[in-house]
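ok, trying the design again with the full structure, not the truncated one.
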């Protein structure tokens, strides 16, 4: 069953990335932030409101749901375990800040609350959910995963420190990746 879940998630990410590529010809020019060490590689790609709107319009999302997404900043995140150990993703251990002010990630439960407020059909909620980066996951050696993270739209640059536990018991050497001066993409 776990293999099926991983494959469905991988297929979902592939479809998301392919759709964004097709829906916006400037996709290739999108800024990429990359941090890598001998154990892990992480890529963050900011998405414009127009890119996200096109993706959800292509899945027939109602306009009120698309409007909700446009108020937020989306990053497509890709993570690859390059080590021989398990690496543990837990987005609750990530710290985002701008000028010493904490910026919270919008988690799946918060999105679900948004969708319930506007009575978004379950099929759209499910589609949206599979586009998000899992909040917790164990990365086996060589494994990759990806999806979107979201925050409220920021006008100023911000930083992200992504912390990861390692080893089967999570007691291995902790990994810390730091992204500086991330910016939310704007429509042109």
């Amino acid at each position: 069953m776990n293999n099926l879940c991983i494959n469905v998630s991988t297929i979902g990410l592939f479809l998301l990335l392919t759709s964004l590529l097709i829906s916006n010809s400037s996709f290739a020019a999108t800024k990429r932030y990359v941090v890598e060490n001998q154990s892990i590689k992480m890529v963050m790609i900011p998405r414009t409101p127009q890119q996200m709107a096109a993706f959800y319009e292509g899945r027939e999302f109602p306009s009120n749901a698309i409007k909700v997404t446009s108020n937020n900043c989306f990053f497509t995140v890709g993570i690859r375990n390059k080590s021989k150990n398990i690496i543990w993703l837990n987005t609750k251990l990530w710290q985002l800040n701008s000028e010493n002010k904490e910026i919270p990630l919008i988690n799946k439960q918060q999105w679900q609350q948004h969708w319930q407020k506007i009575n978004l059909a379950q099929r759209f909620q499910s589609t949206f959910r599979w586009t998000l980066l899992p909040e917790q996951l164990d990365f086996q050696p060589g494994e990759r995963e990806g999806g979107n993270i979201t925050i409220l739209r920021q006008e100023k640059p911000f930083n992200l420190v992504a912390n990861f536990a390692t080893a089967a018991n999570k007691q291995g050497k902790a990994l810390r990746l730091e992204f500086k001066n991330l910016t939310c993409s704007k429509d042109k």
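Keeping the full-length input from now on. The longest helix spans residues 2-23.
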